[in-house]
Amino acid sequence: MTLELRSALTALLPRLRRFGLAITGSRNDADDLVQAACERVLLRGDQLRDQTRMDAWIYGIMRNLWFDEVRFRKIRRHDDISEAADIIGEDGEAVAEGRITLAAVRAAMAGMSEDRRTLLMLVCVDGLTYQEAADTLGIAIGTVMSRLSRARRELQERLNERERQPANTPIPFRRGGK
């Protein structure tokens, strides 16, 4: 593998991790998926045909690896472990509000289908064009546009529904035992 390919792979790691998180819904699974994809790229770098579309090639590898893992898990009947989202940041009202908003978006996206969640991550977070997302996922651009429209609408509805739900009331603190 050339040094150029290694440095390009290193530069893509944050995007690969976000994509992995989008399709797996779990930080640990996303990290494992990125590692497996990087191993595959390092072993089979000679199969890359278009250096300019390395990201699409790796996204395809990751998607295929994840499909294999999902099939394997169905056989094993392994349940995913939910993780709490910890974000390191400075103290303050803005950070707290950001965490609450991010947690709400993550929770809303967790209930969405993998297709919709993946499209939202590719286009809205990773900044791919509709055509790049279509090429990456191997679907028509019209399909990307309609699925993305439905995904955005569903995310907005889920977030609005969450706002309408009554907040949990705090349990009063009592001093002096019982």
How would you explain this protein's 3D organization?
It is a single chain. The chain has 178 residues and is mostly helical. The chain has 2 domains: 1-78, RNA polymerase sigma factor, region 2, helix turn helix motif (Rna Polymerase Sigma Factor, Chain: A, Orthogonal Bundle); 93-164, Arc Repressor Mutant, subunit A (Orthogonal Bundle), CATH 1.10.10. It contains 7 helices and no strands. It has helices at residues 3-24, 27-43, 54-76, 93-110, 114-125, 130-137, 141-164. Helix 1 (3-24) crosses helix 3. The mean pLDDT is 80.
List the helices and strands and how they pair.
Layout: H1 3-24, H2 27-43, H3 54-76, H4 93-110, H5 114-125, H6 130-137, H7 141-164
C-alpha termini separation: 68 Å
Number of strands: 0
Mean pLDDT: 80
Order of helices and strands: HHHHHHH
- Taken as a percent bin, the fraction of beta residues is under 5%
Number of self-contained structural domains: 2
Q: Helix/strand/pairing class, anyone?
A: mainly alpha
CATH superfamily of the largest domain: RNA polymerase sigma factor, region 2, helix turn helix motif
CATH fold-level label of the largest domain: Rna Polymerase Sigma Factor, Chain: A
- Helix count? 7
Poorly predicted parts: none
> Briefly, what CATH class of the largest domain?
Mainly Alpha
Biggest sheet layout: none
Helix content: 55-70%
Form type: globular
CATH architecture title of the largest domain: Orthogonal Bundle
Computed over alpha carbons, the radius of gyration is 20 Å
